[in-house]
Amino acid sequence: MKVTFEPDAEAELLHAVDYHNRIEPGLGDDLSGAVEEAIDLAVQFPEAWQIVEEGARRIRTKRFQYGVVYLFEGDSIHVIAVMHLRRKPGYWLDRLG
């Protein structure tokens, strides 16, 4: 299955990884791994996760308070946001087009 990222979602992930690595070396890398695991699960079971808005689904990461918001269409997953679950819910809604 093809996985693509909205540019803003990719920037969010890079920012979060950098921030966590500054808190503790390696912590951001752990976050990146947790996001990758979440995306892998979404690829395996794309329709298993909660629909949060207009067909967009969200899967939570393990260990970190982050979620991956994605659209599933045919044989592809498009990541809309890599969001902290306690900050600004819904800020990504305008990315749905």
Task: Describe the 3D structure.
The protein is of the alpha+beta class and 97 residues long. Helices cover 36% and strands 31% of the residues. β3 and β4 (66-73) form a beta hairpin. α1 (7-23) runs antiparallel to α2. It starts with a strand and ends in a 13-residue tail after the last strand. The relative contact order is 0.22.
What keywords describe this structure?
97 residues, alpha+beta, 5-stranded mixed β-sheet
How many beta strands in the DSSP annotation? Answer: 5
Based on CA atoms alone, the radius of gyration comes out at 13 Å
Structure classification: alpha+beta
Q: Tally the helices.
A: 2
Low-confidence stretches: none
* Beta fraction: 25-35%
Terminus-to-terminus distance? 22 Å
The biggest beta sheet is recorded as: 5 strands, mixed
What is the 3D shape? Answer: globular
What share of residues is helical?
Answer: 25-40%
Q: What is the residue-mean pLDDT, rounded to a whole number?
A: 96
Q: Main sheet: which strands, in order across?
A: 1-5-4-3-2
The ordered H/E elements are: EHHEEEE
InterPro entries: RelE/ParE_toxin (IPR007712), RelE/ParE_toxin_dom_sf (IPR035093)
Keywords: Toxin-antitoxin system
Protein name: Type II toxin-antitoxin system RelE/ParE family toxin
Pfam families: ParE_toxin
Short description:
Helix content is 36%, strand content 31%. With 97 residues, it is an alpha+beta fold. The radius of gyration is 13 Å and the shape is globular.
